[in-house]
Amino acid sequence: MKKFRFKESYSVRGIIQKISFNKLFNGGIKKVFLNKVWSNVIGENVSKYTENIYIKDNTLFLKINSSVLKQELTYGKDKIIENFNKEVGSDEIKKIVFI
Predict the structure, then answer these.
(1) pLDDT tens-digit profile of 12-32?
(2) Per-residue confidence band for 94, with pLDDT thresholds at 50, 70 and 90
(3) How many CB atoms lie within 10 A of CB 18?
């Protein structure tokens, strides 16, 4: 009888999440993944005003073009963090900074 190499099954989403948040993997795929997650969390209309997204030391940095939108997003930081972590499947993000 053939033995399987892995004892557990993993979803493709779980594998991609582990790869994308790996410290050694900081290329373009991580940036695309972050943009997609941000778009899913906040919506297409708001994500159009976002120029740059990156994570450093459990902090999500977002460059927002519109000062009015930046102010509105500041009021809902806790909810955005909660939804972002839920979408990613981990509690990596502790803080958001709007630039």
Answers:
(1) 777 776 666 655 455 566 677
(2) very high
(3) 13
Q: What are the start-end ranges of the E strands in 35-90? A: 50-56, 59-64
The CATH class of the 26-98 domain is alpha beta
Answer yes or no: are the C-beta atoms of 87 and 43 closer than 8 Å: no
Contact 17, 40 (CB under 8 A): no
Domain boundaries, given as residue ranges, for the chain: 26-98
Q: What does the pLDDT read at residue 58? A: 87
- As a whole number of angstroms, the distance between CA 99 and CA 95 comes to 13
Is 1 a residue whose pLDDT tops 60?
A: no
